[in-house]
Amino acid sequence: MTAEPTVDTSARRLYGVDPATFVAERRAEAGRLREAGHAQVAKDVMSLRRPSVAAALVDAVVRHRPELVDEVAAVGRRLRAAIGDAEAGPADLRAADADRRSVVRRCVEAAAEVAGTWGSRASSTSLREVEQTFWAAAVDAGALAAVRAGCLVRPLSPSGFGAVDTTGSSAVEVVVEVEPSLTPRRRASRAGAGAGAGAGDEPARDDAALDRAHQRVQHAEQVLRQAEDEATTAAESASAAEAHTARLEQELAELRRRLTGVEQEIRDAAALRRRAAGEKQTAERRRRTASGAVDRARRDLHLLDGDG
Q1: Is residue 35 part of a domain?
Q2: Mean pLDDT, to the nearest integer, of 11-20?
Q3: Is residue 26 part of a domain?
Q4: 167-211 pLDDT, tens digit each
Q5: What is the dihedral of CA 82, 85, 91, 93, to 10 degrees?
Q6: Where does residue 37 rank: exposed (0-12), middle (13-18), buried (19+ CB within 10 A)?
Q7: Which residue has the higher pLDDT, 119 or 181?
Q8: Where is the composition biased (Basic and acidic residues) (predicted)?
Q9: How far is the CA of 297 from the CAs of 284, 285, 292, 293, in angstroms?
Q10: CA separation, residue 24 to residues 33, 107, 224, 262 (Å)
Q11: How far is residue 249's CA from residue 255's CA, in Å, rounded to a whole number?
Q12: CA of 83: how far to CAs of 133, 144, 157, 184, 204, in Å?
């Protein structure tokens, strides 16, 4: 038995394609539904929002490179575990954050490749929004669920290591998987220690755990500042590169215009040369004709002088 069509089914077909074709694809999808007698679903499909370029690129990466999204999810779990684990140190958080930056970078590269298959070049702004979206997915389970759904209509933005605002970000309902509670672990009592000794050591262990927690927070804030600085620097570099590219394109257009003018001048000069060559040939023929006439006139004059 064929399942009844739903707007979510249509949305999963429509999102992740070149946003330049989205409106036409949406209209065609709604038309097929109306012809099949599903007028209400067709109406709902027509209300689906066109995604931003960045959102469409993320949706496409979800479809074509799902293993990257799995890596984002895995590194996100590691990050949250490192933050919530009393035994984790700064080195654990640094390693997890390095993995996050690596997988997010590869997601951005995959998005740029997708844009190439669409016959366009993703702008630095769009790629920056793609980066922010996958970063958000790495630090927040709700953002990850919205990304995994593959029907984003707008990019996401992380807020440190806290919850991400996903309101109105997806065209379909998003189900967030509940993660196991990340409760801080404590060190086991030393072997051979009695119950009384363990109880007496408890405040010391709590103080040590609290100190480590403060250290993790400080390091997490440092990592966040570093990541934000890197993102700002990358955005500035991308903006400068985009401006430089625009200047080069303008220079190229000017050179092409000048080249067109020079080529026209060459064509005009060639036409003048051909015309001059033709005029030269005509003048040479006239000169030979005139020279022959002079020779004949001189011969006639010589004959007349001889007869006299």
Answers
A1: yes
A2: 88
A3: yes
A4: 999 999 887 876 654 444 433 333 333 444 444 444 444 555 545
A5: 20
A6: exposed
A7: 119
A8: 202-214, 273-284, 295-308
A9: 20, 18, 9, 6
A10: 14, 28, 41, 44
A11: 10
A12: 21, 18, 20, 9, 21
